[in-house]
Amino acid sequence: MPVKQQNPANTSRSKEARIAELERKIRAASAQRTLYSGVLASKLGLNQTDLECLFIITLGQNVTPGQLAVETGLTTGAITGVVDRIQRAGYIERKRDPRDRRRWFLEPVPHRIEEIRAINRRAFASWTEELGRYSEAELDLLLDFSDRNYLAAVNATVALRQDTEGSAPGMKSSGH
Prior knowledge:
Blueprint lengths: L14 H30 L3 H12 L5 H8 L3 H13 L3 E6 L2 E9 L1 H14 L1 H7 L4 H27 L14
Antiparallel strand pairs: 1-2
Helix pairs in contact: 1-2, 2-4, 3-4
InterPro entries: HTH_MarR-typ, MarR/SlyA-like, WH-like_DNA-bd_sf, WH_DNA-bd_sf
Protein name: MarR family winged helix-turn-helix transcriptional regulator
């Protein structure tokens, strides 16, 4: 379903209007990705939070449960459960830090992660084809935008967690 434009007839939109339209379209894509993630998690025998944590683990290097807790905002107790479930499903292994026996690294199991990537490649083949239409310079711009968009999302998440006055009516602040 295409995301509606505010004023589709107005081709001379202001910069602010273009930014607002881009923001709406990013939110729509994000919502769809969230739905996709839920379906994928179900197919893999995981819950959605576990799958998102697995993605964070695969993107990092020498990720520890403590780092995962900080990055996700989940408690260390909740992270223990997440890590246990992901490990039982066979997607990660815990490896001791050779320099600190008290610390564990969460290491993806390569062939299991490749199974997920193969599913994603099939699902997003047409999207990848569309990206092939862009020049290298345009792809560089999109990569820059993606980096900035990610950092903005991280900062917004941190700010929302810390904002005790910004709770929706009827919601209590969790203090995270």
